[in-house]
């Protein structure tokens, strides 16, 4: 791994003795970054908060997002670590609190996960026609749809 990263031999193993230690550090870093980023935008219009958070993931934290996706589907990564990775970006509990129902909360998290997965596959790039507006429409439809969440509530 050190050679692939162009680091002196033994650098990675000095800090992370095993592959699992390295994965645990990645999970912790992504989780910490997610919480910090979300704390910056937690009040206001739920649609705008969500879109801002998703856009930040796809621009400022795209490398973390790609690493998370790669590790989540890697069958050599322990199931417990894959589960932590799967839950490190979004709070199903917070979404449930916002929407008032477990299935609605889980559905909203699934929507957000799907939006970032599609954006990663297509490339989050205005030139390709996939940008913030591509995120806003489905988020607004879900939040303002049949249930109609009040736009003045604080998200999560």
Protein described:
24% of the residues are buried. Mean pLDDT is 82; it is low at 148-156. The chain contains eight helices and no strands. The protein has helices spanning 11-15, 19-39, 46-59, 62-73, 79-86, 92-99, 102-122, 132-144. With 156 residues, the chain is mainly alpha-helical. Helices cover 65% and strands 0% of the residues. It starts with 10 loop residues before the first helix and ends in a 12-residue tail after the last helix.
User: What would the principal axes of the Cα set say about the shape?
Assistant: elongated
Distance between the termini: 38 Å
Element-level helix/strand string: HHHHHHHH
**Count of helical segments?**
8
Return the structural class: mainly alpha
Rg on CA atoms, Å: 17 Å
Q: What's the average pLDDT?
A: 82
Percent helix among the residues?
Answer: 55-70%
How is the biggest beta sheet arranged?
Answer: none
The total count of strands amounts to: 0
Give the oligomer, counting copies of the same chain as homo and different chains as hetero.
Answer: single chain
Low-confidence stretches: 148-156
Strand content: under 5%
The gist of it:
This protein has 156 residues and is mainly alpha-helical. It has helices at 11-15, 19-39, 46-59, 62-73, 79-86, 92-99, 102-122, 132-144. 65% of the residues lie in helices and 0% in strands.
Label this structure with key terms:
mainly alpha; disordered C terminus; 156 residues
What are the SSEs and their pairings?
Elements: H1 11-15, H2 19-39, H3 46-59, H4 62-73, H5 79-86, H6 92-99, H7 102-122, H8 132-144
Helix pairs in contact: 2-4, 3-7, 3-8, 4-5, 6-7, 7-8
């Amino acid at each position: 791994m050190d050679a692939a990263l162009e680091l002196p031999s033994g650098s990675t193993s000095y800090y992370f003795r095993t592959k699992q230690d390295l994965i645990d550090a990645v999970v912790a870093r992504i989780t910490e970054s997610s919480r910090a980023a979300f704390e910056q935008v937690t009040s206001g219009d739920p649609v705008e908060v969500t879109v801002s958070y998703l856009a930040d993931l796809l621009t400022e934290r795209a490398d973390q997002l790609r690493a998370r996706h790669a590790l989540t589907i890697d069958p050599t990564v322990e199931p417990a670590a894959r589960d932590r990775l799967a839950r490190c970006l979004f709070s199903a509990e917070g979404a449930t609190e916002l929407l008032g129902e477990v299935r609605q909360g889980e559905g909203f998290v699934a929507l957000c996960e799907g939006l970032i997965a599609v954006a990663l596959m297509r490339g989050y790039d205005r030139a390709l026609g996939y940008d913030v507006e591509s995120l806003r429409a489905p988020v607004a439809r879900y939040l303002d749809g049949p249930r109609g969440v009040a736009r003045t509530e604080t998200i999560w």
